[in-house]
Prior knowledge:
This protein has ten helices and 13 strands. By secondary structure, the protein is α/β, with parallel strands linked by helices. The chain has one domain: CATH 3.40.1190.20. The protein starts with 8 loop residues before the first strand and ends in a 15-residue tail after the last helix.
Amino acid sequence: MIGFAPVDVVGAGENATDTLIQLPGFPAFNTSTRASSVQVLPGGQVASAMVACQLWGLRARYFGKVGDDAAGEFQRRELSRAGVDSHIVTVPGCGSQAAWILVDQSSGERTILFQRDDRLSHQPGELPRGGIVSARALLVDGHATLANAQAARWAREAGLPVVADVDNLYPGHDNLLRAVDYLIGSHDLAERLTGEADHTKALSVVAERFGCRLVAATLGRDGVLAYERDSGRFTYRPAFEVQPVDTTGAGDVFHGGFVFGLVQGWPLERILDFSCAAAGLNCTALGARGGIRPLAEIERLMGEARTCAAHPAFAPYLR
C-alpha cells in the first residue's frame, strides 16, 4: 500500500493538453482566417489549480488520468516540472483530454472545443483515501461525480474543507454537491440548478438545497458573488483591471487562489480579492497556466485596487 506524506492541498479532477490558436478576430462562418500563432500548452481545471498552489509555496498533490499517448506524457512532465506530487493513472488505448482554443486577440476572449473520453474520469474506489485525508483542503471538479463525492466525504470526515469547481452538470451531481463545503460555479450554474434567473435567489436556494457552507458564482469581468448559508450574507467583489491576452484558465486559477486563501485562514473578502487578482493576472499571458504570477505581484495588484466597475445588480453586496 502506498503511503502518502502530508501536503497542504490535494486535487482530484481533469487535466488537458490545450492547443491555443490566436486569431486577429473571431472568424465568421464559411471563411478562412490566418492564425497569428499556435501553441500547445498544459491545462485542465484541477491540474492547473494545483500547479498554481504549488508555485505559491504550498505542497500540492494531484490525482488524475491520462491516455497512453504523447499528450499524457506531456501532462506528467509539466506537473512534475511544477513540483506537484502527481498520481496519474494511464488508461490503455485511450487518448488524453484535448482542447482546441480559439483566442480572439482583440479581446482575449476564447472559444473552446474539447474532446474527453469517459474513461478518463475516476470511478468509485479508484481514489486512495490516504492520499485525500493527508492534506489540509480538497479541490474537486464536477466530472467524476461519484468518485469525487466519495473523496469529499472522506475529507469532511477528516475535518478538511472541500471546494468544488463546477462549470457543468453531469450525472450524479447531486451526490457530489451534498458533500461540498464551498461550491464555486460558473456564472449560470446556480440558475441551471434552480431555474432562478436572479443570482441572489439562485445561490441561496443551492446552498439550502445541498447544505453547502458557501456558494459562489464567478462572473468573469464582473468579479464574483458569494453567499454564506449560516449568516445569510452575500459578498460581492469586483474583478481587477488588466489587459487581457487570453482568458483561458482564469477560472482554474481563481479556484487555486480560493483554496490557497482558505488554507491561509484568510477572511472571505481577502480570499475573493486574491482569487480575482490571481485570475486576472493569468489572463495577461497565453494558456491556462501561462500567467500564474508570484504572490508579490498578486498582492501588488490587490494593493493598487484597480478594479473594474461594480456590476449594478451586485453593488449593494460590495464589502
